[in-house]
Design a protein that fits this description.
five-stranded mixed beta sheet; globular; alpha/beta; five-stranded parallel beta sheet
């Protein structure tokens, strides 16, 4: 039977360094078609949902608007139905597949050999772009916490959670008040491990951008894994420790943070941390943070789909009003229409940035302050824009967009990285920033956002996947 095929494969506790021939055959002839079937399943209820929305629009406006105007209303609704409807359905397909077919991932067991195809199928589902699209709108909200709980992770209260990549969610334990950064991967099992081991992140710990946590690692209470940290297999970070990077394949501990009860004169930063912690534990601020960010996600996250749907809607209405002549004209100027909508979208985001956020300034800002709210808003606005910016990286259009967002960019600069606090970013004449570089100007520690400028000098070169930390500067002609 199908489920017997999904679960077949002899138990093997030896390290797996390569895919065995029988497993490869199952993946090729059974797994690949099943992946496509599973990823297509949400379209069935989604198409039915579209029909109901269109029928509802017609019934609602019957006797008031003629048919083509009702169609306009349908196209206006479509981006939200697609972004929030289809991706919500995709998430529930993943949850049901996990619960009904895959089951629970257990510590001390190698699921890559005990149920190889089921694990591989689940990995394909959670690594797909559609899965990321159904998780990212709800960053730092309780909605995202509940999504991870439904997948098997144990998530505590008041966790500021970002989208992290994982497969064995059942082996993830996150205690109360933890803060996550972006692009984190939690890996309870690696290809060379004979068995999976749980990952534990203790109360008030920080796991920041680009961190990788390997099997059996424990991040102690109030410990900080800084940007690009590696938590090695079975590595334990002491409570209050601050670590970053890696040396010899293990995270490097830089210092220890003082305990909250230790007697010492409070600095302005510590006072800011204490106020941020107080607000974090307040039911009032917890409610408003979640309410505002969920509303922002619903309203602004589908914006990219609004502009893409506008292009389709124009062609549809040209066909209705001008028959085939208008439709052919639409195809003739399709490229120009697409470029125009890209420009409009970029202008729109830049205008919203100056209207709602203003200028980013150097300093420390506590969680739940006005800056924290607008900072989260900016991340939501930029999330659907990044693919558009990726398409124009290395061109004068990217330079133009960075300048419109407030960055200082010199002549003949080549920009292909990622930024958020543009006002604090300076690129000299002839400077080059490679693909997938992180030039954001913030760090987060102990419920405080710390902003500092990033400067890249004239003719300096930041290679692909490099990072210049906030407060860092690359001299003229230097290469990173």
């Amino acid at each position: 039977t199908l489920f017997r095929s999904l679960g077949s494969g002899a138990r093997d506790d030896r390290p797996v360094s390569s895919v065995r021939a029988p497993d490869l055959s199952r993946r090729t002839w059974l797994g690949v078609p099943l992946v496509y079937v599973l990823q297509a399943l949400p379209y069935i209820p989604f198409v039915y949902l579209l029909e109901q929305v269109y029928r509802g629009v017609l019934v609602w406006r019957r006797g008031h608007l003629d048919w083509p105007k009702a169609a306009w209303l349908f196209w206006v609704c479509y981006p939200w139905v697609w972004r929030l409807g289809f991706h919500e359905l995709y998430f529930w397909v993943v949850v049901l597949f996990k619960r009904l077919v895959v089951g629970t991932f257990a510590a001390g067991r190698n699921d890559a050999t005990s149920k190889p195809l089921r694990r591989w199928l689940f990995e394909r589902l959670v690594e797909a772009e559609a899965f990321e699209s159904c998780m990212r709108p709800w960053l730092s909200t309780e909605v995202l916490c509940w999504r991870y709980r439904l997948l098997g992770a144990r998530i505590g209260r008041r966790v500021h959670i970002d989208f992290f990549k994982c497969v064995e969610y059942d082996l993830i334990e996150v205690e109360d008040d933890v803060v996550f950064g972006s692009l984190v991967r939690l890996a309870p099992r690696t290809p060379d491990d004979a068995a999976a081991s749980p990952i534990v992140i203790r109360r008030e710990a920080n796991v920041l951008d680009h961190s990788l946590v390997l099997p059996g690692a424990v991040v102690g209470e109030r410990a900080v894994l800084g940007t690009f940290s590696l938590a090695a297999k079975d590595q334990v970070f002491a409570p209050g420790s601050v670590a970053t990077g890696n040396a010899g394949g293990r995270g490097v501990v830089l210092r220890r943070r003082p305990e909250p009860g230790e007697k010492q004169a409070m600095t302005p930063l510590q006072k800011l941390e204490a106020e941020a912690r107080r607000r974090h534990r307040s039911a009032f601020w917890f409610f408003w943070w979640n309410a505002v960010n969920c509303l922002v996600a619903v309203v602004f996250y589908p914006l990219r789909d609004v502009f893409e749907t506008g292009i389709i809607a124009i062609g549809y209405m040209l066909y209705f009003y001008a028959s085939w002549a208008g439709y052919y004209a639409y195809f003739g100027c399709l490229v120009l229409l697409n470029c125009a909508f890209v420009y409009v979208h970029l202008y729109y985001v830049a205008a919203l940035k100056w209207l709602l956020v203003g200028r980013f300034r150097q300093g420390n800002y506590g969680f739940y302050s006005r800056y924290h709210f607008v900072w989260a808003l900016m991340m939501t606005l930029l999330a659907p824009v990044y693919p558009l910016v990726d398409a124009i990286h290395g061109t004068v259009l990217a330079t133009w967009f960075y300048r419109r967002m407030g960055a200082t960019v010199g002549d003949r600069a080549c920009v292909a990285g990622k930024a958020l606090e543009f006002d604090l970013l300076t690129l000299g004449a002839g400077a080059s920033v490679g693909r997938l570089c992180d030039a954001t100007c913030h760090t987060v520690e102990n419920f405080v956002i710390k902003l500092a400028p990033v400067a890249i000098g004239d003719r300096a070169d930041v290679g692909a996947r490099s990072v210049v930390m906030p407060g860092g500067a690359l001299g003229a002609g230097a290469t990173l």
